[in-house]
Amino acid sequence: MISVATPNEKIPPACANDAERWAAVLRRDPQADGKFIYSVRTTGVYCRPSCPSRHALRENVSFHESSAAAEQAGFRPCKRCRPNEAGLDVKHAAAVAKACRLIETADELPDLASLAHAAGMSPFHFHRVFKKATGVTPKAYAAAHRTQRVRENLAQSDTVTAAIYDAGFNSAGRFYASSSAVLGMTPTRFRTGGSGAEIRFAVGACSLGAVLVAATDKGICAISLGDDPDALVRELQDVFPKAKLLGGDRDFEQWMAQVVGFVEAPAIGLDLPLDVRGTAFQQRVWQALRKIPAGSTVSYTELAQRIGAPTAARAVAHACASNTIAVAIPCHRVVRTDGALSGYRWGVARKRELLAREAKSLPSVKPRINADKRG
Predict the structure, then answer these.
(1) What string of DSSP letters covers 247-298?
(2) How many other C-beta atoms are found inside a 10 Å radius of the C-beta of residue 72?
(3) Is the pLDDT reported for residue 54 higher than 50?
(4) Reduced to 3 states, what is the DSSP secondary structure of residue 199?
(5) What is the band of 163 on the pLDDT scale with cuts at 50, 70, 90?
(6) Beta strands 37-40 and 61-64, pairing class
(7) What integer is the mean pLDDT of 67-85?
(8) What's residue 77's pLDDT?
(9) With CB atoms counted within 10 Å of each terminal CB, which end of the chain scores lower, N or C?
(10) How many other C-beta atoms can be found within 10 angstroms of the C-beta atom of residue 281?
(11) Are residues 95 and 10 in contact, defined by beta-carbon separation less than 8 angstroms?
């Protein structure tokens, strides 16, 4: 779900102090819109930072967190910039959220023209706005949603074909062509809990606890950390209860040794063949994660910007949480904007320790970590 800020919602200031806010007003910075409001004592009005009106004297200007705060102080909205109405970014976010709901609830995928009409935009403009907000095209978003519906339907439908069509695919053949990339196996095998699939695995120990490494014939499909080795194996079995789990051979044991070695000494690096499956958006996030240097961190917002989806920080956080390959896809290097560690699939304490080890092994790079205990 895409969240949309209302014009009166209390929003943290975009700038650190009033001097920076005033500078944003002087340059009529549209990037500051929605972050703060300024009022003019001599006219009794309040405006957006980007308002085209003639600038007032600095001594007559005050700053407010929201339009509601400005009105409570006795000011009225400017008739030129209309700061009490939703800004363009908010309108776009609302339109995209509406389109996502249409895609998610429709029995058949709405075409681009229908989605654009519902959003009140031209197809070309809507396509650009949607991709900017979500990081993917409407078509890719719909495909990812339908794939998720197939996953859910495969466990409930009487036949694989019924599950595919109930998810909104007009052609079973089209889904089968991409099924291995998104399910990791054929729909029939996925429906039967991975029956017939072979997954090699091994469980070892490191200073962070137990570590499980699992792989298909294409590469590593899971790296898990925990306190209980048996629990890690049960988790793997729960995902594919009918898959054939095999003990790793000598080559596989070398992969395990590389993982353990990297956990203990991050400076050595880690280069393993991976078998990762997810939506197009998740793949983009995971690829960007692998480009974050050891010993450094980025925020969810920064990561969203790196993949070309600056407004999709929440979706980026969800993609990080969906990662099943610890350390090799280093989601532990993503923190909150304020430097707090946020969550981690394998425990915030392990995330903190991994970052500390990377910083120690690479002293020239200092990660931005807040000691906030909230995790």
Answers:
(1) E--HHHHHHHHHHHHHHH-GGG-----B-----HHHHHHHHHHTTSPTT--E
(2) 10
(3) yes
(4) strand
(5) very low
(6) antiparallel
(7) 89
(8) 93
(9) N
(10) 21
(11) no
The encoded tokens of residue 214 equal 């699992």
CA pair distance 19, 216, nearest whole angstrom: 57
Packing angle, helices 348-361 and 250-264, rounded to 10: 80
Give the tokens for residue 74: 């006795």
> Taking the CA of residue 313 as centre, how many other CA atoms within 13 Å lie in the half-sphere pointing to its CB?
12
Query: Alpha helix locations (H) across 290-347?
Result: 300-306, 313-321
Residue type, 163: A
Alpha helices in 45-193 (DSSP H): 67-72, 88-105, 112-119, 123-134, 138-154, 160-166, 172-183, 187-191
Distance, CA of 315 to CA of 334 (rounded, Å): 13
Instruction: Write phi, then psi, for 188 (nearest 5 degrees).
Output: -65, -45
SS3 238: helix
HSE value, Cβ hemisphere, 13 Å, CA-based, for 60: 11
Report how far apart, in Å, the C-alpha atoms of 196 and of each of 154, 173, 213, 303 are.
17, 22, 20, 38
Token readout for 359 is 């910083």
Which class for 95: exposed (0-12), middle (13-18), buried (19 or more C-beta within 10 A)?
Answer: buried
Closest CA to 44 of 87, 7, 77, 89: 77
Q: Which of 59-73, 100-114, 335-349 has the highest mean pLDDT?
A: 59-73
Helix or strand (DSSP H, E) at 299? strand 298-299
Max intra-chain CA distance, the chain: 80
What pLDDT score does 12 carry? 40
Structure confidence at residue 270 (pLDDT): 76
Quote the pTM value: 0.52
Torsion of CA 307, 311, 312, 314, to 10 degrees: 130
pLDDT higher than 90, residue 62? yes
